[in-house]
Amino acid sequence: MAKYIKYAVVFAGQGAQNPGMGKSLYESNQAARAVFDQAGADIKYDCLEADAERLRQTEVTQPAVYTMDMAAYAALISALDIDGGGFSAPAALAGFSLGEYAAFTAAGVIESVEAGLEIVKKRSLLMKAVSTNPDGSQRGTMAAGMGDKDAVLRLVETARGADILEAVNFNSPQQTVVAGDASAVERFSTLAKEDRSLGVKAIQLSVSGAFHSPLMRPAAEGLAEALGGYAFCKPTLDVYLNATGGLFDEYGDDAGSPDDAGAKARAVMVRQIQNPVYWQTIIEAMASEGIAAIIEVGPGKTLTGLTKKIAPEIIALHVEDEESLNETVSRIREA
């Protein structure tokens, strides 16, 4: 029976945003509309009306994408009638970078969308602060290295010099994102262009900081302090982690007692903000567990494309508007 297909849901991250990203779901789906309304007028405006330049600002982007992720997830859950018993719940969840906070909310680690938004807002302000020089200019940036992973890593070592430059997103066999000081990222891109024998193509990313790099360490310290005011719970669904590629429940002893979900959640979030994202490892782990379909929820379909490259045998779907919601529900029910 279709209701027993083993599927996972993954949540889009920062960088996937686009103007008007929530309008279709807001107008067509009651469950999604409730999430946008709960987020408040300012965030609803950013999701439905803001232009690309405003959406590029970290303190705007993160709450907006988190809200869009949760609205798209609510629309999917409603359409599949999971709460009413019409379809089985996801076998696993994961979220890319910021999207991990949406995954934690969907799994009950974060108790509510309201709490999730509070945490995401604090995270975004901390990340903005460490990404800005005293004169107001942007300190760090990121670039996607397209090509063999080992070739990208060798180029990182060559380009780093005395600056900070690290591989921070291991997205697929042919895509590794690097981040660090703007000067080092520029050298990385220049060397890739000048030496074609490396087989690496560098694509500058439209981001406002060097996320998941050591430049985020002060933000991690601030986040650790901020998270002390929140309670967290053991996940009700399997959640794969950016920082390890493994499950939340298997996170190491350094996070505290295995039974202390709160300490573990805080340790995971603090580590994630300054450490690489092992997305390829996550998708490969899902495939090894017999996941037959992966549904990306939130703006864009970047993660859908990565799924096709990492595990082409898996059905890759997405939900970002009314059309994609209807198509995904139809495909899942027929699978």
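That was protein one. Protein two is written in the same sequence-then-structure order:
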Amino acid sequence: MPFALLKYGLGSDKPAKSHFSKSKPLKNHYDVVIIGAGGHGAAIAYYLARHHGITNVAILDKGYLGGGNTARNTAVIRSNYLSEESVNFYRESVKLFGGLSNELGYNIMMEDRGQLTLAQSDAAIRSFRWRAEINQRLGVRSEVIDRKEIRKLVPNLRMSEDARFPILAGLWHADGATARHDAVVWGYARGACNRGVELHQLTEVQSVEVADGAVQSVMTNRGRVGCGCVVQAVAGMSSVVANLAGFKLPIHTYPLQAMVTQPYKPVLTPLVSSPQLHVYVQQTSRGEFVLGGGADPYALYNTRATLEQKETMAAAIIELFPFLSQARVLRQWAGIVDMTPDYSPVMGVSPVKNYYLDAGWGTWGFKATPICGKSMAELVATGRVPQLIKSFELERFYRFEQVNEAGATAASH
């Protein structure tokens, strides 16, 4: 690395090639307009260009690349869900994550860590047995483990039987992992831009023109853009943007907060979560402890952090890891999550023709980035809903065929 830096410093070929498409005026028309330059929007554009040869694509964002929930999540990857539909979907995403660095030529810093979810009640043990059975049948590595195995995996975990909620067992998910969230969106965006896709930051969609039931164009703060179709991938702002197109979504939006401590020497390898205490924790490769909890109890479009939530997460994590009582908090932040009634996403067609939805992710969005991008790109290119995401279409709420994942959160909401 030092020699490469020295060579670059003494060389004359500067500036280096830009990662993304340079700023340019918007064209009058694009085959596909993607609203939202997060991980999902960039992934959809990448797979459209690579797998389907569709490159007349514009990614529009009112902010900057990866500046929304992609930059605000805690970067957990897993597939230990409850329903067959979800397990199949997230299993494919974990597989894609495994080869993503090589595919994109961009190091996403993925680390296979495993995830341990703690059972602190008899009801939790019954639920974990159910999840493990479904996971194993569908090829996902999950199993219920006892206190002895938990001690081996996480020696620093407080296992006292005198605790307020004693740890009775755990769900061990060997496929659990983490990745660098900004590297994922940068890698996808660079791959898309190298194939001709245009990235337009600081470009806010202000209205959507619909005629005869089909989308015609979007109006932005930089002018009107005609389009063959639109893909909405705006995370917590899903309901707001859908309203611009003239329809409502069964979504409520809540702040979801996290915080990170000062660095420590490596003492924790797995991801550890407690649905009972509404908290989860991982130690990064830099040594920091990343803490997350449940969503705020009231709907709000705001990414502010609160002392109340900091105290709640701190109290919960100290019950599990008492040594963290001495840790200093470096920073605290929040994203906004779009929660559906069944805690599963909305992917597919919308009431407006040629207007496609990638919404309702709640706390699942980052871990679904590769497979959602690939599936939505196939839908846009072929006009046919892939079987893998058929169960997640908006119409399920009108047929009362929900995909219930309320019990699969790492920290219950």
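The mean pLDDT is 94. Keep this in mind for the problem set.
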